[in-house]
Amino acid sequence: MDLCTFCTISLDQEEVFRTKVFDKSLSPFYGEDFFFEIPRPFQYLSFYIYAKGSFQRDLPVGKVSIRKKDLYQHSGKEQWFSLQPVDPNSEVQGKVHLEMRLSELITDNGPGCQQLLVRIIECQGLPLISGQNCDPYATVALVGPSRSDHKKTKVKKKTSDPHFEETFSFEVTRSSSYSKKSNFQVEEEDIEKLEIKVDLWNNGNLAQDVFLGETRVSIKILRNENFHKAWYLLQPKGNGNKHKPDDLGSLRLKVNYVEDTVLPSSCYKPLCNLLLKSPDVKPISASAAHILGDICRERYEAVLPLVRLLLHHNRLVPFLTAVAALELENTQEANTIFRGNSLATRCIDDMMKIVGKSYLMGTLKPVLDEIFDSNKSCEIDPIKLKEGDNVDVNKENLQNYVQKIFSSITQSSASCPTLMCDVFRSLRHMASKRFPVDPHVQYSAVSSFVFLRFFAVAVLSPHSFQLRPHHPDPEISRTLTLISKTIQTLGSWGSLSKNKLVRLALDLFHNSHFRFSCVCFLDEISSNVNKESSGMEDALILKEGEVQKRAQGRKRIGKRNFKKRWLRVTNRELSYHKHRGKEALCIIDVKNIRAVEKLDESAFNRKNMFQVVHAEKPLYVQAGNCVEACEWMEVLSQFSRCNERRLANFHPSTYTGGAWQCCKGLSDRAPGCKPCTTPMLANLQLDIDCDRETERIFSLLTCNDGKFQKMEDACASIAVYQGPQREQDEYSKFTIQDPKETFQTLKQLRNVMEELQTQHDRRNDPTAKYGSLGNPIVGKSIQTG
């Protein structure tokens, strides 16, 4: 029977995303993309396939788990992975801190046997049980061929990081041939036979206890020293079950994983300064930023850190102007302006995605929501029509949607970000100067970006721009494709699409009124005229979703508990509701938010907690997972970090029992005891970590050292031979206008990269102690049966 399935993404045992349900297919195509920062340490990135249950809980079909250290070898590749069975005894995470010691047990008759002392110190990162912290305890056993001594710690309540600090003793029988009196070592035969087995469990009270993980340590580790202390990763319980790889099917994945080791800011200053002076270098092709684009031409992600770095330092517009001017010099026909995948177009694409996020939300999201909710058929291809469909009705539906989107776009000039307008104004001026005879080129230079590369792409893939939580179903996807093609036609200013189906949708707009609206819109977003907002725009929903909210405690009688609430953030207010679509139970003006900070897990024994400090009592919220918690805090911080009454310090815990649990201050109005997250003073209120962006650029240059060397060779060859040579065919992918200036920049880049690599080598600790908290031992897991 065909199944209705969905796929989830988990960090260890914590679900962070899930796809839509795919109906009745044994070969579902989910086709969804998820991008996120990983805010905490983890061991596995896992993908679970579930069968949707109608009247019962969802049933796991299989999983793919990739260990963190193996993500690099899969990164950037699209691969099939065999689904593995989901066994409760294999769903483990966390680490345990152990100490083992051998000492001699003295009896009345003198030295007797040896005593093994096992100290269970603590655990970290145990999984959540039913979304809450677990009630863990540990069992400790000395196991061997003829013995199995079991002992147990006390249960620790509501914590994923329990501190046990309990010591257990086991007698280790000494061989009769043992005669030493001073060096108390276990005999070789005993070492090979005995091991300590530590199991972690969640106390189920009335329910069955849940296995959390195990580790096994052979006593032979004490052969040379009588003392051992280390961290161990918890392992699955070996149950001996074997499954053929193809029993459960396969899952096709493409994972892109990037992990950066960021050094102190001072280490990045030379490289950062070299990149920031790029707009002033003549010619621009000899600048460090342009060289980066040349060397990493095939890697689209290489441009993003450069754009973010220049954006943060207000150097992006002059750089974009310079590289666009260089591209225009090499453009021979006005109707092909900015059509290629060049450094200029890639940089402007990324700039629009960064600064135009809220602009897209306000302009497209209301209409896209209507398209998704109404789900009217818009198919106008007779071959693809479904039975009972009317092509005239579908055409009317399509034209209605297109009209609404274009009306929303052409009336949105007041909301277009200033930085985008600055770039469009520069492009328009340069295009007119390059092709003075063509009256349309000043508009096509702008429309090729704002229509073709911005609005059209967002309509086609709303999920990628956070306009919708999931990818559309096939029918809505077809509607969006038709609308997107219509927008692309406008991006090709003056040239109509050859697609007759799209031209049908454009019939309604081939009139002077529509073209006048488009011209006015392009004029307004690319002119020097100051845009003034009416101030009457609708509130823009930035994020909403279900959370656990702690009761505010306004009533004197009653328990302060956690309740499910629907949380919504707009550019004006934060509100929570009993359910989605219901009237707000509480509204907080974003201007009154004074801090948005993490809350210590110990405050309520719950993970993923954050607090919103405002004029009244703090609002305590628990997000569904660690990624969502970071997203809530980020969006709230972006719209409140410039508030006048922001706090300098906050309390990371709660005020209970007449005192703050963090600092023991007695007054509920006592100043905070911990500095607040430093608010960004950057324009656009963007969180840009310049050190991390520079580190990414360094990594990209290092990974492309071969092309770096080729570019150095090309400069030397061109400078020596003066003029066209055979060797230049090999270097045709590089833009080298001035070989001496370019070589000089390459030399400077080489020097700062070598110094930065030296700094990395000094700080990296390849011999980090195995068994430390940061480098725990992967304990063996013995399979039985």
From TrEMBL:
Extent of Basic and acidic residues compositional bias: 757-766
GO MF annotation, one: GTPase activator activity
Domain C2 intervals: 1-81, 92-232
InterPro entries membership: C2_dom, C2_domain_sf, PH-like_dom_sf, PH_domain, Ras_GTPase, RasGAP_CS, RasGAP_dom, Rho_GTPase_activation_prot
Domain Ras-GAP: 298-492
Region (Disordered): 757-785
GO process terms (BP): intracellular signal transduction
Gene3D superfamilies attached to this UniProt entry: C2 domain, GTPase Activation - p120gap, domain 1, Pleckstrin-homology domain (PH domain)/Phosphotyrosine-binding domain (PTB)
Keyword Metal-binding attached: yes
Superkingdom: Eukaryota
Domain PH: 540-641
Key words of the record: GTPase activation, Metal-binding, Repeat, Zinc, Zinc-finger
Repeat is among the record's keywords: yes
Protein name: RAS p21 protein activator 2
